[in-house]
Request: fold
Amino acid sequence: MRTLLEIENLMKAFGGFQATDGVSLSVEQGSLCSLIGPNGAGKTTLFNQVTGYLVPDSGRISFKGKEITGQHPYQISRKGITRAFQVINIFPRLTVMESAQLAILSKRGHTLRFFAGARSMVRDEALSVLETVGLADKAGYLAKELSHGEQRTLEMALALAGEPELLLLDEPMAGMSPFERVKATELIQKIHAERGLTILFCEHDMDVVFGISERVTVLHQGRVIAEGKPEEIKKNEEVNMVYLGHGSGI
Ligand code: ADP
Ligand code: MG
Reply:
């Protein structure tokens, strides 16, 4: 197995506060991995550094063996690392279909001006992505007309439309109903299995985390306190202490 993403001794402080405190983490190609930890552990800060939205103070991030530390978000996304974005903020006036078409075109470097003429070219591809996530029947809806769970699913579809090699999902199930969670869990497993996509996700729902992850990394106060298979993490004393300290055991 080849290492797709390698994070080494990453540090990031906000003022005097060390949000990422020497994190090292590797993600194997084709794996389905999760990052867990109590609120404020530094999960989103870590994702922001991997995707280029924050520049680390020190340490190194490599993707497919090449260093990407401190590169711009668009450079990192072109290399194949994509995170699900909040669609509702980005494409409020576009339909579900148009959003998917735009995601495909922008991955290919086209600008919005080009969009009007070019979108018919990628209609089939956009439809295929919407079919994968189960939103094809909502293609003509505006994103804002979708339910919250459907919007989160659309975010995943737009990330997929960019044909990533590594998909980062930051709490993809936040605010979803129990039924939507089951659907979203199945969708993550499906895109991992069918597309062989490498996925790293943060999630609060421990049933989901332990049910589908091959590897789990636990962050606490900006540090990795455990890494391993779900059954190892569940038994880990330090991890249980940290979660019990926050009022919720694993
Ligand atoms: P998580 O995603 O694990 O809940 P975050 O990465 O969002 O944690 O936050 C980690 C810590 O860093 C928190 O204490 C948060 O308040 C702090 N933090 C995050 N972003 C900033 C920022 N831009 N400026 C100052 N502090 C921040
Ligand atoms: Mg977060």
Summary: Residues 43-44, 170 surround magnesium ion (ligand 2) (CB under 6 Å).
